[in-house]
Design a protein that fits this description.
By secondary structure, the chain is an all-alpha fold. The protein has one domain. Helix content is 73%, strand content 0%. The protein is built from eight helices and no strands. Helix 2 crosses helix 5, helix 6 packs antiparallel against helix 7 and helix 7 crosses helix 8.
């Protein structure tokens, strides 16, 4: 578990570094913060306080509050990858500190990703990459944005790829570790209550399941 946590820490730094670089160079290419905001406002991309109760509207303050609360609660309270981390600390106080720090970092990352979204819109607002056949799917906008923004800086495109892979590997490693723990604690041990394996054997079995 310690290895998974420290791996997540290292990968988080890479993710944040990649996103921050995208923002810095994105604003530079777009002509500054003021220009990006003007384009976003003109395109109605900034509307934080839509209080409409119309269920057909994609985003309102109510859907954000309700959906965000349910999602955040499920992640923080019942998600195996999170609760497993709470159980690794020495006290409830430390678990609370970890939760608040995690909340702060997630909110910060969401804000940064939102800024990146505004930068992508500002760059392609007058030329849809999908219609121009520059990409085949909408989830390829960000890689296209990075390649065009960082193309004059050797190595930075690779850093972006590392940031994307860090996000994926972080989730995968946590999930695999959680699955191995659940299988060991909730399936293996109850089926063999009189023949519990040694700690060394449990570790070996968990490693084997993670590798598979």
């Amino acid at each position: 578990m310690k290895a998974v946590i420290w791996t997540d820490v290292a990968q988080s730094f890479i993710m944040f570094f990649g996103v921050v670089l995208s923002i810095v160079f994105g604003f530079s290419d777009a002509g500054g913060i003021k220009k990006v905001l003007e384009i976003a406002i003109a395109g109605q991309r900034i509307n934080f306080f839509n209080i409409s109760f119309d269920p057909t509207i994609r985003y309102t303050i109510w859907t954000a509050l309700l959906g965000g609360t349910c999602y955040a609660s499920s992640c923080a309270c019942i998600l195996q990858t999170q609760t497993q981390r709470y159980m690794c600390v020495n006290s409830t106080r430390e678990a609370q500190k970890a939760t608040w720090m995690n909340t702060f970092m997630i909110v910060l990352l969401i804000i940064l990703c939102g800024i990146v979204g505004l930068l992508i819109y500002a760059k392609y607002h007058d030329c849809d990459p999908l219609k121009a056949k520059l990409v085949s799917r909408s989830d390829q906008f960000y890689p296209l944005f990075v390649m065009e923004t960082f193309s004059r800086f050797p190595g930075l495109t690779g850093l972006f790829i590392a940031a994307v892979m860090s996000g994926s590997l972080s989730s995968i490693s946590s999930g695999v570790n959680s699955i191995a723990t659940v299988i060991m604690e909730d399936i293996w041990k109850p089926l063999t209550p009189t023949r519990l394996p040694s700690d060394k054997l449990q570790t070996t079995i968990s490693k084997y399941m993670c590798e598979r």
